[in-house]
Amino acid sequence: MVPGVRLVVLGKQGAGKGTQCVRLSHHYVVPHVSTGDMLRAAVKSKTPLGLRAREMMDRGELLPDDLVMEMVGERINESDTRARGFILDGCPRTIAQAEQLAEMLRPDRLDLVLDLDVPTSLVLERLASRRVCVDCGANYSVTNPPMINWTCDVCGGQVIQREDDTAEAISRRLELYERQTAPLIEWYHKHKLLVTIPGTGSPDDVTARAVRVIEERRSAPGILKSEEFS
Ligand code: AMP
What we know:
The protein is α/β, with parallel strands linked by helices. It has a domain at 5-117 and 192-219: P-loop containing nucleotide triphosphate hydrolases (Rossmann fold, 3-Layer(aba) Sandwich), CATH 3.40.50.300. Helix content is 49%, strand content 15%. The protein is built from nine helices and eight strands. It has helices spanning 17-28, 35-44, 48-58, 65-76, 79-84, 95-105, 120-129, 167-190, 203-219, and strands at residues 5-10, 32-34, 85-89, 112-117, 130-133, 139-141, 159-160, 194-198. A hairpin with a 5-residue loop joins strand 5 and strand 6. Helix 2 crosses helix 3 and helix 4 runs parallel beside helix 6 (95-105).
């Protein structure tokens, strides 16, 4: 049996987090919990949370910590995540969220926090060409479109450019990332949970690197053999 995993994946927007989280969730047979996807679903179905979130998301701003962590807390308490774990994508974004997450998981803890390191110039290029399915969130790009006329290969939904992938919102999100989320790297480093891997190369290369560091961690839980891994 494949053992599950409790993993957080960090990285700038466009670092390939979404793609790698989907792959790792298949590999470890655990749910991919993406706060961005959950919030977009709430916006689409106009729930009270979605109505509150919409404008802030369109402006590329972070939502209040408590709002997001309540949603995450409910999700990670469901039976599938309790039984096997999760790949958490897009959360935590602030140290306050990381603290709340650690509290929610007690007496357990995360297995690992994976930081996908990609240069900003590459991230900007990827975000400008990114396209997503409005229904299932599958990722495409201008150079890797769906097979038929911007119709999702997975679910048949419409494939579009996200409203927060405009040049203005992208630069705001990257600036926010530097200011608020990058300190998380330091925080998780101090808590001996962080491993940084290059997010460059093919998706297969990055997944193979990720699986290697996760397995390394499993075989020696107290010790991180490679905090910088290439
Ligand atoms: P993402 O798809 O992860 O880039 O998230 C899209 C948007 O959802 C972000 O720009 C924020 O407005 C909001 N969001 C997602 N996750 C969080 C989080 N952990 N904390 C605050 N806001 C979030």
